[in-house]
User: Fold this.
Amino acid sequence: MQSATAPADDIAAEIYGYIDKRFPALAPVAPDTALLDGAIDSLGFLELIMFLGERFNISMEDDGFDFQELATPESLVGFVSRVRA
Amino acid sequence: MIAAPVLLHDLLTAHAGSDRCALVHGDRTLDYRAFNDAAVRFAAALLEAGLERGDRAAIFLPRGMEECIAIFAVSRASGVFVPINALLRGQQISHIVADCAARVVITNRELAPMVAECLQGSAEARILLVEDMAQAEPLALPDCNIGEDLAAILYTSGSTGRPKGVMLSHRNLLAGARIVRTYLGITPEERILSVLPFSFDYGLNQLLTAVEQGALTVVLTFRFGDDIVRALRDHRITALAGVPTIWAILTRASPLLHKTELPHLRYVTNSGGAVPSQTVGNLRRMLPNTAIVLMYGLTEAFRSTYLPPEELDRRPTSIGKAIPECEIFIVTEDGRRAKPGEPGILVHRGPTVSLGYWNRPEETAKVLKANPFRTPDQGGDIVCYSGDLAVEDEDGFFSFIGRNDAMIKSSGYRISPSEVEEAIMATGHFRHVAVIGLPDDFAGQKVHAVAVALERDVAVAPVLQAVAGTLAAYMVPRELELVDALPVTPNGKVDYRQLVRERTDNG
Assistant:
């Protein structure tokens, strides 16, 4: 898969792009945009989690996954980069 | 002799002396005595504010105890409660308050400035804060209503226009509570988890069945499936009601569910759309000791059918049979009673048939009609035409086929295409726009917009962003697709069916 070697910048671009498109009310998201305080509904989080699974092969069943990783785009990118490193 | 309850608040006053826990929200708990006392204080505040018999009191509060108290308090004050979903935006809120000509809006200190702003110039309702209402001194309260009086107006969308208010009498609400409690076997020992809004008939019904029995309701606001699993575990919940989106979240994105035993969970119920068979299978595997009850209802008839859990394996896509006290039949396009296997409109008769749409006689007449098989002079009643296409099988079980109009249903919410189209057109960039529902694994349907732009280079993202500022999140199109022209029917109207077909048929 192409993403297997994606550097962190590409991961960031892809995640920011996804959030901007899926949650237009938040666009354009900043690294510290708060995602957990009502900006995204429960269906939105489900889709975000499914996106992480499909695109980066990240599962919430993985040890160390904490929903706090979804607090901001920055924390999310950091989490995905760590898991894939 | 104990009088049978007639009015909504009778359900609560029956437990006025009980110290059993009624409500839990976060760290707060409220027993039945305190619940009733608070409702009496809130009711006194409503009277002091000038609420008279039959006046509408809108409720705009975050999910929690005050919302539950306010619902019963409005009934106690002989008013009509109008719950507004906390997800709605400014214009949507002012539409509801103005449409029902609410005398008061019950909200809290934090939300009051936003409410005041959106009412400006459109509605003359007085704003009451729950913080003040809780301090009101109890008053002698009027007691003049009967079961036929209006108890609630629930706003819901159809295929066109802004949301309409479905009028429910006290008798409707009590019948709904009694009927659902009967077939689900709800007792005072039930511990119910509420995750659905009380502005939604099914979410409201859940609260009423609990209060009717003196059972416990735990009110939860959740972001992730694991929040639900923790609440189920920590509160030893016995009953959960959800919509298809919630089952998708629980089965696909709740790692805690796999590691948690939930021996107390007696049943879960679904309404607000069909659950994919695969999701039903996953739920059964993950909750081996829990009965799964598929239900169907529409606000206009409050509650309609349910599938007994023992039938689920045999009929995983059925919506079941009529709920107790009600009859369901299918009527063909030419007005006949459909034979088994023959599709038609699902028609509901019984004590939960609503009183129609507030101030909309023409729209009411399309939905509430004389019983087609018994004339009024021979005892014929008023029945509810659902607008849902369904079919009955040889054994009398019903299955949902689809809508016979353009209404969209997403995450349990009814969405009118024209309300979304209006918001998109208001951005000023388009010549035409049509909004359709496309199949979606998680939400049932997703909102999809197809538009003809005025200029060639219109950017889609800012348009969606603007629309997200005026519509609730669940109404914002997931995609805005630009085309050169919309397909039209022979009579020159936009061909919505064709738009859907082009995007769902594989080539």
Summary: Residues 1-5 of chain A have pLDDT under 50 and may be disordered. Chain A touches chain B through 22 residues (CB under 8 Å). Residues 36 and 71 of chain A are 5 Å apart (CA to CA).
